[in-house]
Design a protein that fits this description.
Number of domains of chain A: 3
Strand order of the largest sheet of chain A: 1-11-10-9-12-13
Largest sheet of chain A: 6 strands, parallel
Oligomer: homodimer
CATH superfamily of the largest domain in chain A: Nitrogenase molybdenum iron protein domain
CATH architecture of the largest domain in chain A: 3-Layer(aba) Sandwich
CATH class of the largest domain in chain A: Alpha Beta
Shape of chain A: globular
Radius of gyration of chain A: 25 Å
Number of helices of chain A: 17
Chain lengths: 428, 428
């Protein structure tokens, strides 16, 4: 638990930062067979899988309005207010993200712009699993609502026919239009191919276990997906100034997600400072393990956690950027200086009072973030994820004349004579 | 050629708008075997495939500075000016796209923003094929340059060791850092896994044949890709006011790309007007086929082209949005009214003087666009494609206090006690 490495060489560092990305042919075959079945048999297959996997004997595939009203009213006032507050913050930040579009006249009479259009019919997946993740409903459905997406459908398994009231309350609050009581690869198949009662989705969003991830990978041949989500990760970047208690609770917040979650502490300081902090953090973790729930997950996950310490800031930042963590907590004396050096991370939490759990739930940022190093090349879910930008050009006769020489010379050189002709005839 | 349908019913319309999306197990196996070989043997495999597929006995995998200078100086002054003009226009439009970022204080002391960072080490693929597509170099490398991406690598096959001078000139102009003389699935494998001399890429861009597309699909498990590009498509939306000659050259521009290109004319008007226009367009096409090159491709492609006519504007726009064409030319009396009704298209060309070839080469918009209906959910390549947006939050002690109730209630309800604890300890 929290194995300690001081200034590892590059080869060692690479191996410390590696994720296990085993592929599993058994899962692949099971997923493809479920998806194929849904493609062929449609709704019938969905009813059968709901019974088989969720022990759910459904009368309808969708949550009815009555169910929605009855169940969402069962949520405690305290939790309703919490969801309302989170909702407002998430909406505020995502509204700030709405792009303006742009206009450019590249030459006289050559007018270019982008028309911004919401993606209609998104499919949002929210896992059932060990905890009812109503927070994920907010994180997917609020950006869709801010973007203005039509026909927002959410799918989640109904264990023994039931969906968590908090999840329904969050869905209502966030503007979900319909809730499909189906989970797993079968839900993703319904989204990707459509069935009698589920209209095919244009883009599929949301986390899930390895079955769901595999199904999204397969679906991505036909429809868009938000990202391929792997196990959750946090990197805590700390120095001697950081509270060991804060570090310990931040590492544990990640570890409690599941046995495959990864928590790495990158420490900046001398070997003595690093060892001292490691011991203090270990003490806090041991104490907390006795008082918190989900101890099994935390112990399994912490078994592959580690502390990697560096005396130099650039070396530490190199490790951060190479790993490209989903969540990066910077708990150091001058966090903003280190933020300037961050090149790859999903979401950054600056300073001692910004725990990951603030962003996971309520501060307003999105918690659907790239894992497995995809933060090197992708961003988390935002309003952008629910928008398309269609380029438009309107060229006048004079603009066509000004462009024609270049277009015709290039078409000639590429051997495309009809392209040239299409320009040439506009000059007459 | 140009089969005619007037107001088809919904079932018929669906079948008229269908793309053939056959998957091919032989291609899949060949691609996976090449990729696996590159993964295992690295550079050696790249040299061997260059010899085998491109008859290219390479001394180095990369274009040298001398080669770059020598060859790019061989480009004619006319073509250089054309590339320069196109380059300037593309740069102007993509510079207008650079996002500003945003800042939001969702509650007192809860500060949220996005830090925008270029994606480093992009891998750009440009096919060899039947024509040297130097225009694609501009379309991929200029957005990378505007975004500020580091280490921009382009791969293209060197047929018999040679790369087209125009392609090298365009690469230099657009700011490409290194050119890898490797094509096909082997280039994509080098990008995705890295070899001794090719550092692994963070995101892979660019069009290609079915081998390349399949390789990108496989690569997308490990690195990001821009999109899965299928055969090119145009939809021309016209009414009685449109010139049959313009329509004919626009359909042929698409058809000359390859036998699997698709060109569809959607006509708004009475049956008599539609049949008249169809006949005029056919006349022009027949005449042009005799005078233009690439007749074989055009005839094969036109064999599955069609004209679908509607008397009602909403019906016509329904067909457009259901098809979600890569390119949409609106050549009607009031194109801006129809533009308002466009929900899904890659790029729109408005009015009689905006042929697709203007945007393919030089007006400034990007020609790397979603095909196969992906325009329902994705946008073409833009500066966004080369940027990541990292969310950041900085919460003050007071902000943490204001958020804490909601975070703790939600963590409780989701059964995540360490998440709650991480917030609770910040209050002490």
């Amino acid at each position: 638990m929290l194995d300690f490495y001081y200034e590892p060489d590059n080869a060692m560092l690479s191996s410390l930062l590696e994720r296990n990305s085993e592929s599993n042919d058994e899962i692949r075959d099971a997923v493809l067979s479920i998806m194929d079945d849904v493609k062929r048999r449609g709704d019938d297959a969905l009813y059968e899988y709901a019974l088989k996997f969720d022990h759910s004997r459904l009368k309808s595939l969708f949550v009815s309005e009555d169910e929605m009203e009855d169940l969402s009213s069962q949520v405690s006032e305290e939790l309703k207010s919490a969801i309302d507050l989170a909702s407002n913050n998430i909406r505020a930040f995502h509204e700030a993200q709405v792009p303006k579009g742009e206009y450019c006249e590249s030459m006289e009479g050559v007018r270019l712009w982008r028309k911004i259009v919401p993606i209609s019919k998104p499919g949002l997946y929210v896992p059932g699993g060990t905890a009812p993740l109503f927070s994920t409903v907010l994180m997917l459905a609020i950006p869709a609502s801010v973007a203005g997406s039509e026909d927002v459908m959410l799918a989640t398994p109904a264990k023994e026919g039931k969906i968590s009231p908090a999840l329904l309350y969050a869905a209502k609050k966030a503007g979900v239009h319909r809730i499909l009581k189906v989970g797993g690869a079968q839900a993703i198949a319904a989204f990707a191919y459509g069935t009698e009662s589920v209209e095919k989705r244009n883009k599929i969003f949301g986390p899930g276990n390895r079955f769901v991830s595999f199904a999204k990978m397969e679906a991505s041949r036909f429809v868009s997906i938000d990202m391929l989500a792997g196990p959750s990760e946090v990197m805590v970047l700390a120095d001697a100034s950081a509270s060991a208690l804060y570090i310990a609770t931040d590492l544990l917040s990640q570890a409690e997600h599941g046995a495959d979650s990864q928590a790495i502490l990158v420490f900046i300081g001398s070997r003595a400072e690093a060892e001292k902090k490691k011991n203090e953090v270990m003490e806090e973790i041991k104490r907390l393990l006795n008082s918190l729930g989900r101890r099994g997950y935390m112990e399994e996950s912490l078994a592959h956690s580690r502390i990697i310490a560096f005396s130099s800031i650039p070396d530490a930042m190199h490790a951060v950027n190479e790993y490209a963590p989903e969540h990066l907590i910077i708990n150091t004396e001058h966090p903003e200086i280190l933020l300037d050096m961050v090149r790859s991370a999903g979401s950054v939490f600056l300073g001692p009072y910004s725990p990951e759990s603030a962003g996971d739930y309520a501060s307003g940022t999105n918690h659907t973030l790239p894992t497995s190093g995809f933060a090197k090349s992708t961003s988390g879910v935002s309003v952008d994820s629910f928008l398309k930008k269609i380029t438009v050009q309107e060229i006048t006769k004079e603009g066509a004349r000004l462009l024609s020489g270049a277009v015709m010379a290039m078409a000639d050189a590429e051997g495309l004579s009809a392209h040239k002709e299409a320009m040439r005839v506009r000059l007459c």
